[in-house]
Amino acid sequence: MQKRVVTPGQSDKFCTTQWYGKVNYVGGNSKSSALFISLLKRLKATYRRAKTITLIVDNYIIHKCHETQRWLKANPKFKVIYQLVYSSWVNHVELLWQVLHDTITRNHQCRSMWPLLKKVHHLMKTVCPFPGGKYGLAKV
């Protein structure tokens, strides 16, 4: 008989960026262009003195849709480079998702969404990449 794993319902979605070891993220109820644009706005506010902000993104629809393209056109500070289609191995944020699943979301024992989200938020604040592509956690 297969082991039953309790899940706390629909999960929040996250958009992340990584810049020289610093992880920026926003969370929301769905993975949408609005969520991605809120991440862009956070980057704009965080790096307001930067002349340009270059993003390397995958080909997910929220990165290319009309709403996102309009926002990017109105904010020429942002330069977007799209990765090759089906090339997740070159996307380093995938390593972050692996750490998140391995340490927090896979087979967790949380009875509701809030304790699980608290653990996710803690991980997102404390995760830091080490040289060589390895990720370390500060007291998860």
| Percent of residues in beta strands | 15-25%
Total helices: the number is 4
* Largest beta-sheet characterization: 2 strands, antiparallel
* Secondary-structure-derived class: alpha+beta
Number of strands: 6
What is the CATH C level class, in words? Alpha Beta
Distance between the termini: 32 Å
Mean pLDDT: 75
Overall morphology: globular
Radius of gyration: 16 Å
How would you characterize this protein structure?
With 140 residues, the protein is an alpha+beta fold. Helix content is 36%, strand content 20%. The strands form 3 sheets. Strands 1-2 form a two-stranded antiparallel sheet. It is globular, with a radius of gyration of 16 Å. The protein starts with 12 loop residues before the first strand and ends with a strand. 9% of the residues are buried.
